[in-house]
Amino acid sequence: MNSETEQNKTVPETPGDLSPLCRIGGIAALLLMAYSLAMMVQILVLGGQPASAAQAFDLLQHHRVVGLLRLDLPTIAVLPLYYLLFLGLYAALRQVDRAHSILSTALAFAGTTLVLATPTALSMLLLSDRYAAAKSDVVRSQLLAAGEALMAADIWHSTGAILGGVLVQCGAVLISVVMLRGGVFSKTTGWLGIALHGLDLAHIVGGLFVPVLGIVLMAIAGPLYPVWFFLVGRRLLKLAAENRS
After folding, report:
1. How far, in Å, CA of 202 to CA of 198, rounded?
2. How many Å apart are CA 107 and CA 24, to the nearest integer?
3. Number of structural domains in the chain
4. Is 55 helix (H, G, I), strand (E, B) or coil?
5. Considering only CA atoms, which of 24, 61, 82 is closest in space to residue 225?
6. pLDDT attached to residue 154
7. Dihedral sign from CA coordinates of 149, 152, 156, 159
8. Residues contacting residue 185 through CB under 8 Å, at least 6 positions apart
9. CB-side exposure of 22: number of CA atoms within 13 Å?
């Protein structure tokens, strides 16, 4: 393929004062790659999100670490890396298309913030402890209802989280389009980003109306994430090194 050749053509310079952002963004991308691989293993070995609040409470009481993992605490922990990743992408691509680089970064920042604002595993942990200490069936029923409400408003189901996911994916598709121009990133990275984040965007929107379609689309998009994060992270670190030397 000519992807590497394309990258070695005339590449817009990244001034030294922003090369640290490329380095930070590259590190963030590689950490997100590791997280993506770990999540695939976790789902295969431990399973996905608990099906009910009662199951979540039982996991948190008897297998607390497993419960927190299946309630997506790691996802919340790594989401702030998207801020660093898009800062690095902006630093690398701002001379190619400043307006769209700014817009994609703003979309990703807004979306990530919305998702982080949703309830997390820590809220379920508090309810689980109260459920275990409850002395009456009435209190337990109330806590179970509260747990079901939290699960309905988590990072996969709440309005804010869904809108946040849409914004992040729109920003990622847009920055991938910018990658196709200017020779900073390879065409492979750009097209892979468009396909990956386009599928994830379709998964979020389509899953609202046809849940099975959402599952299928995510099953296709999921394995592509580590590849894209690796390509992006490697290129950002190379840009940082080139501008430092």
Report:
1. 6
2. 19
3. 1
4. helix
5. 82
6. 85
7. negative
8. 7, 92, 93, 179, 231, 232, 235
9. 24
Check: CB of residue 99 under 8 Å from CB of residue 110.
Answer: no
Residue 3 lies in a domain: no
Amino acid identity of 176? Answer: S
d(CA 188, CA 195): 11
Q: Cβ(171)–Cβ(90) under 8 Å? A: no
Instruction: Tell which residue, 184, 157, 168, has the closest CA to residue 95.
Output: 184
With cut-offs at 50, 70 and 90, classify the pLDDT of residue 15: very low
Q: Identify the residue with better confidence: 112 or 123.
A: 112
CA pair distance 144, 146, nearest whole angstrom: 5
pLDDT band for position 42 (cuts 50, 70, 90): very high
What is the model's pLDDT at position 153? 86
What is the rounded distance in angstroms from the CA atom of residue 182 to the CA atom of residue 161?
Answer: 33
Place of tokens 């390879």: 186
140 in a structural domain: yes
**pTM of the complete model:** 0.89
Residue 188 is part of which domain span?
A: 14-244
Q: Among candidates 197, 237, 228, which has minimal Cα distance to 91?
A: 237
Structural domain includes residue 8 = no
Q: Is residue 112 part of a domain?
A: yes
Q: Residue 143: how many CB atoms within 10 A of its CB?
A: 21
